[in-house]
Amino acid sequence: MTKKQTILFLSIVLAVCALLIVGIVLTNGQYESSSTIQESMQDAVLHEEDKISLFGLPVNPGLISAYLVTGVILLFAAIVRIFVIPRFKTVPGKFQLVLEQAVGMFDNMASANSPHRNNFLGAYIFAAAAYIFVGTLFELFGIPWVSAAGESVTLPAPLSDINGAIALGCLSYLVILAGGIASNRMRGLGRTLKEFSLPISMSFRLFGALLSGLLVSELVYSYLALSFVLPVVVGLLFTVLHALVQAYVLATLTALIYGEVCEPYVRKNKVRSNKIKTTDTEVTL
Amino acid sequence: MPLNIDWQQILLHLLNFVILFAGLWLLLYKPVRKFMHERRERYEKTDAEAEKKLAEAEQTRAEYEKKLSAADAEIEEKRAAARREMDGYEAMRKQAAQEEADAILASAREHAAREKTRAVEEARGEIVGLVTEAAEKIATKSASEAYDAFLAAADEQTPKDGEDA
Questions:
Q1: Lowest-confidence range among A178-192, A264-278, B81-95?
Q2: Gap between the Cα atoms of A211 and A164, Å rounded
Q3: Residue A49's CB: how many other CB atoms inside 10 A?
């Protein structure tokens, strides 16, 4: 970039910033929130006020987000299946490499953690990780929706709805339970039931992680002074990193525990210890 | 329910995720995994074939080397046999040549002896002739003249005898 181009670039950036600041100052006070920050945060957790009508059924905005995320992912998968996969080459291109890396990573994770039974597990953790990752990034788009009360609602991440987190946590537990029963019958059932706290910990870990990002974002956006630069950092920390970390954590935990309950039982041979009985004479000596 | 937990919505979320799982498995995970497995199998097959061919080539090379070393030994053995045969033939030829040379020498000696005898006989005959002639001359001339004539005749005759010898 030459000196002239640099000056031009900086001038444009400064002009845009100045225009934005003017716009922000002029529009301040026009769109006052009807609720306080306390009410907004409580509603972000409980979703008691901003219900959305799904075919006449009042549901949380997170469920709409979940269906949209599923639709987007399935549309992407269908496009890839129709247009990309038939053109796969032995030496992969960039996009093919990304797909192969994604599938290969979860396939390897499944086979490494559960060497005896991993066909279903690989597909499950792949789907769960894709859902968590895309669902968390979905929050960044801030798609507006109309609530049942007629107000505008920004769609949150699907897993910031406690019902979504419970569903995924419990489903992961059920998958582990099914794998244990299929591999070791009653012993597998026993091994899985031993981890009874798993569905609760999985559900609330997801819910807490995603909700924390949502609450911090709510706080940041509630004040005009915090709306510059900071949202970039907050967005990165609480959305992109959460997306990666939570997807990885749930996939790893599920694979690990699935592998444990599916491990074939090996009967341990009891070794009789031949204790040398010491006689009174030996003790005396 | 506390925290707005709703079983109906949990089931709706479950339904959503089951649909997503089934769709992703069929549309993305399974085909990509299948392609990767097939490619791995193809590479493993190629690798196994290459290893098999390499082993075969190594075996063939070992066989050739074995044959080559056997051929070297055979060539050396044949060379030694040829050398022995040549030596025998050479000795035989040398012996034959020696025998031939001995025969030629013996024949030459015999011939020379015969020639010498013949020359001596001829010289003796000539001497007898000269003596007879001289005796005749003595009878006609004086004894000294006859003697001189005899000596002169003898001088003339002497080198001729040597040549013949």
A1: A264-278
A2: 12
A3: 15
Contact call for B29 and A88, based on CB within 8 A: no
Query: In angstroms, what is the C-alpha Rg of chain B?
Result: 61
CA pair distance A155, A46, nearest whole angstrom: 14
- Which of B9, B14, B26 best tests the A interface by mutation, with the highest count of A CBs <10 A? B9
In this complex, the residue of A78, A88, A171 whose CB is nearest that of residue B17 is A171
Phi, psi (degrees; rounded to nearest 5) at A153 = -125, 135
- Select the residue of A66, A80, A122 nearest B16 (Cβ to Cβ): A66
Contact A168 B31 (CB under 8 A): no
- What is the DSSP secondary structure assignment for residue A58, as one 8-state letter? E
Among A116-125, A153-162, A272-281, name the most confident range: A116-125
Which candidate from B8, B14, B28 shows the least CB-CB separation from A77? Answer: B28
Q: Cβ B14–A171 below 8 Å, yes or no?
A: yes
Which residues have a Cβ under 8 Å from the Cβ of A275 and sit 6 or more positions away?
Answer: none
For residue A103, what pLDDT is reported?
94
Measure CB to CB from residue B10 to each of A48, A130, A167 and give the nearest one. A167
* pLDDT score for A285: 39
- Cβ A46–B4 below 8 Å, yes or no? yes
Walk along chain B (165 residues) and give the pLDDT tens digit of each residue. Answer: 676 788 888 999 999 999 999 999 999 999 999 999 999 999 999 999 999 999 999 999 999 999 999 999 999 999 999 999 999 999 999 999 999 999 999 999 999 999 999 999 999 999 998 888 878 776 776 667 767 777 888 888 776 555 554
Q: Do B14 and A103 touch (CB under 8 A)?
A: no
Per-residue pLDDT, averaged over A24-38, amounts to 65
Q: Does B46 touch chain A (CB under 8 A)?
A: no
DSSP codes of every residue in chain B: -GGG--HHHHHHHHHHHHHHHHHHIIIIIHHHHHHHHHHHHHHHHHHHHHHHHHHHHHHHHHHHHHHHHHHHHHHHHHHHHHHHHHHHHHHHHHHHHHHHHHHHHHHHHHHHHHHHHHHHHHHHHHHHHHHHHHHHHHHHS-HHHHHHHHHHHHHHHHHHHHHH-
Residue of A nearest to B19 (CA): A70
